[in-house]
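User: Hand in any protein.

Assistant:
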Amino acid sequence: MMGKVFLVGAGPGDPELLTVKALRLLQSADAVLHDELVAPGILRHVNPGAWVKNVGKRCGSKRVTQEEINFLMVSLAAAGQQVVRLKGGDPLIFGRAREEITALRRARIPFEIVPGISAALGAAAALQTPFTARRGPAAVVLLTGHRENDERSDWRELARSGATLVLYMPGRNYGEISRRLRRAGMDGQTPCAIVSRATTPGERVHVTTVAELAAAPVLEAPALLIVGEVVRQAAGHLSFASLPPNSALQFHAESLRKEVTP
């Protein structure tokens, strides 16, 4: 009897942010193939009798190739197993879902996609500020830092748009991202924030500006880089110690603190 594959979003990290359906599938799965950065607290909800394999990558080093992942999903489902392919955030955002969906369709394996809370929304929650506003940014653009050296990707239109930019997987070369944003015409005093391990106990936020981004610390993965005026709004309630000294953002944050301090 044919099994089925579920491409499941694990959310940004907090196990309580799993959907009810994702939790039910993890508890009943015969096999779970999970990404490297899925939080341990989420994996504790997996059926104790399930076969669990880490198929993710860390710092560019792959444990398993994409072809091997496709083979495992197809083989396990063809053997009658209920397979959960567990991905951080939402499975359809920078999650290599297209390759996996194509492989499943070619093999005529039944599959279902179970959305999850995107890491970008976890970062917005960490900043405690919306990415869009009625009198502010009207759009959010999701990008991947893996293409930061791809000259075909032109950020000039993005810089002019005023949209909030969310860079997934920014890597360690913040200086190159800063240079690309400046070359695209973005003001160096545009605020930005690195959000690491959003929604987990290890969550960290570092606030800086585009001009000073190169000096930012490399925080633990998974991390996202948020660029735009929404970060300036968030600076009033974030840790002032993390703000660059004598910057426009520091001045704004200190002004906000004086306004709200009795």
The radius of gyration is 20 Å. The longest strand covers residues 4-9. The chain has a mean pLDDT of 87.
